[in-house]
TrEMBL record:
<protein>
    <recommendedName>
        <fullName>FAD-binding domain-containing protein</fullName>
    </recommendedName>
</protein>
<keyword id="KW-0812">Transmembrane</keyword>
<keyword id="KW-0560">Oxidoreductase</keyword>
<feature type="domain" description="FAD-binding">
    <location>
        <begin position="6"/>
        <end position="179"/>
    </location>
</feature>
<dbReference type="GO" id="GO:0016491">
    <property type="term" value="F:oxidoreductase activity"/>
</dbReference>
<dbReference type="GO" id="GO:0071949">
    <property type="term" value="F:FAD binding"/>
</dbReference>
<feature type="transmembrane region" description="Helical">
    <location>
        <begin position="6"/>
        <end position="25"/>
    </location>
</feature>
<dbReference type="GO" id="GO:0044550">
    <property type="term" value="P:secondary metabolite biosynthetic process"/>
</dbReference>
<keyword id="KW-0274">FAD</keyword>
<dbReference type="Pfam" id="PF01494">
    <property type="entry name" value="FAD_binding_3"/>
</dbReference>
<dbReference type="InterPro" id="IPR002938">
    <property type="entry name" value="FAD-bd"/>
</dbReference>
<keyword id="KW-0285">Flavoprotein</keyword>
<dbReference type="InterPro" id="IPR051104">
    <property type="entry name" value="FAD_monoxygenase"/>
</dbReference>
<keyword id="KW-1133">Transmembrane helix</keyword>
<dbReference type="InterPro" id="IPR036188">
    <property type="entry name" value="FAD/NAD-bd_sf"/>
</dbReference>
<keyword id="KW-0472">Membrane</keyword>
Length: 365
């Protein structure tokens, strides 16, 4: 009789969870993968994503880069990345760099992975994980908000910055430390890892259609160049996405003194333009034109997590924003989710053996 397959449950069908599923499917043929997603379908907000060259190498190794180019266009599409000190009526261009990046609509990037999880994975929607139990001698048990349960051999939390998996994992680690008589400040530092923290910044995001910007400001620098408009504790970053069909705009207002606090209130709401226009009044016209065209931006609260001492405990691991959510200043969070999980999955390829069913998660990652 053949050995039963190893069952892996992935919580969260965002870029991190789906890229991990694709990596695992490519690495092994002896696993059963279940993806549990809280939403009704796999989806991403209507905004752009910047991809740096390293992730293109990862997609190349999967044979997925042509699919990416179908949505984002081929490499070398954009001219230079430009930098302007822009918080004055006549800004100063002070530098430029090679624009070795790819701008893609987030939903399109997700599609690249969704297309490759239709066979080999079972996707379950409207399944919001509340908690899990990882008791010796039994499979890991998952409890969902709809009252149902499921089991698996290994659990992967790819459920974003608010991660229920991370919260449960660090609650259990803190309990174990408390029982072992560890000092209260050490126990508290584990509890601090459960919740996200506010990075002190607010981001306003909107896609502007290319023809709208062309009409308002012919030959605008942002049409063909990723551009940084900079000021003190504020900046506007733009880059073309989807073969230049849109200009992705993100205007950031930072309150560095608030870093580490908890933001009370909604994290993502659509707002009117007035607050934003006031923040960027008297900037260079190249910047204010974009700001005015962002007529109904999504106001996004930038949250992150404490530096975590571990990403795995027992038969459970976390990845992506659940593990290392970061501020958006380097436009790299999603890329890190893909790169870290994919390279680790492949590195572990030879070390995962038939006995993994009872092994700790560290053998897989
Ligand atoms: C304004 C902004 C701009 C950014 N720009 C860039 C950029 O240009 N380049 C870049 O690389 N990164 C960028 N990032 C970062 C990037 O968006 C994240 O790092 C990335 O989306 C993380 O992917 P993830 O799959 O780990 O988490 P998420 O995208 O948050 O996905 C988590 C998934 O889990 C599901 N889920 C949540 N809780 C549960 C639960 N309890 N049970 C079941 N399912 C659950 C959610 O519905 C979601 O589908 C940006 C972030 C922000 C906020």
């Amino acid at each position: 009789m053949s050995n039963p397959k190893l069952t892996v449950a992935i919580i969260g069908g965002g870029i991190g969870g789906l890229s991990f599923a694709v990596a695992l499917l490519k690495a092994r043929n002896d696993v059963v993968i279940d993806i549990y997603e809280a939403g009704e379908t796999f989806s991403e907000l209507g905004a752009g994503l910047n991809l740096w060259p390293r992730v293109l190498e990862v997609l190349h190794s999967f044979g997925l880069e042509d699919e990416l180019y179908k949505y984002a266009g081929p490499p070398g599409l954009y001219k230079k990345m430009k930098f302007m000190k822009a918080d004055q009526p006549e800004g100063i261009y002070w530098g430029e760099a090679p624009a070795n990046m790819h701008g893609i609509h987030r939903a399109d990037f997700l599609k690249v992975f969704v297309n490759h999880t239709t066979t080999g994975c079972t996707s379950h929607f409207s399944k919001k994980l509340l908690s899990y139990e990882d008791a010796a001698g039994r499979p890991v048990t998952l409890k969902f908000a709809d009252g149902t349960t499921a089991t698996c051999d290994l659990l992967v939390g790819a459920d974003g910055v608010k991660s229920a998996v991370r919260s449960n994992m660090y609650s259990q680690i803190a309990d174990e430390m408390e029982k072992a008589g560890r000092p209260s400040d050490v126990v508290q530092s584990m509890k601090n890892c459960m919740k996200p923290i506010w990075a002190g910044s607010i981001i306003y995001r909107q896609l502007i259609p290319r023809e709208v910007l062309e009409k308002a400001f012919p030959d605008h620098v942002a049409l063909d160049n990723p551009t940084f408009f900079q000021g003190k504790s504020k900046f506007l970053i733009t880059y073309p996405i989807s073969k230049g069909r849109w200009v992705n705009c993100a205007a950031i207002v930072a309150r560095h003194d608030q870093y580490g606090s908890t933001y009370e209130g909604s994290w993502a709401v659509r707002v009117t333009n007035d607050v934003l226009a006031e923040e960027y009044a008297n900037w260079d016209p190249a910047a204010t034109t974009l700001i005015h065209l962002m007529d109904s931006p999504i106001r996004w609260v930038m949250n992150t997590v404490e530096y975590l001492p571990t990403y795995a405990s027992g038969r459970v691991a976390i990845l992506g924003d659940a593990a290392h959510a970061m501020t958006t200043y380097q436009a790299a969070g999603a890329m890190q989710a893909v790169e870290v999980t994919v390279t680790r999955t492949f590195r572990s390829r030879k070390s995962l053996t038939e006995g993994a069913r009872t092994a700790s998660f560290s053998r897989l990652c």
